[in-house]
Amino acid sequence: MRKKTLVLLYIFLMLGAILLAQETTETGNTLDDQFTDVIDNSNRYQDYKVVKIYKLNALKKSVMDSLAAIEKDLNTAQDTIAAKDNTIGGLSANLKSTQDELAVSREKENGISLFGILLTKSTYNTIMWSSIGLLLLLLVVTVVRFRQSNAVTRESKLKLAEVEEEYEDYRQRTLDREQQLRRKLQDEINKQKKN
Description:
Layout: H1 2-19, H2 31-40, E1 43-45, E2 48-50, H3 53-109, E3 111-114, E4 117-120, H4 121-194
Antiparallel strand pairs: 1-2, 3-4
Helix pairs in contact: 2-3
C-alpha cells in the first residue's frame, strides 16, 4: 500500500509539475525546480524514494498556490470572455439594427412615396407617365369633341339664322298679303256700299 501511495504521489507531483512548471513560489523557484529538488534530495530505500514530509508539504503548498493562481487567472479570463461576449452581442444587435436602417434608407432612396405607398422609381415613373399620357389622350379627345360640337353648333346657328330669316321673310310676305287682302276687302266693301 505504501508503494501505491508513493507512486500515486509521484504521478500527482509530476502532473502538477508539467501543468504548472512555470509558476513561481514564494521563494522564487519554479515548480519544476521544486520537484527536481524534492526528488534529488530525497533518500533511497530499496527501489523507493523517501521524501521528507516538510518538503512534500512545501511542494503541496506551492502546487496549491499555483493552482489557486491559475484558477484566479481562469476566472478572470472567463469574466473577460463573458464581457467580450456581451460586447459582441451588443455590437451584433447594433450592427443588425444599423443594417435594417440602411436597408430602409436604401429602399426610401430608391423609392418614392405616392399616397402613402412606397414605390420604386421605375414603378413611379411608369404610373406618372401613364397618367400624363391618359390625361393628354383625354385632352385630345375633349378638344376634338369640342371642335366637332363647336362646328355643329355653328352650323346649327347658321341654319337657325337662315330659318329665322326665311321665317321673317315669310311673315313679312304674309303680312303684306294680309294687308293687301284687307285693302281689297275694304275696297270691295266700300264698292258694295256705294252700289
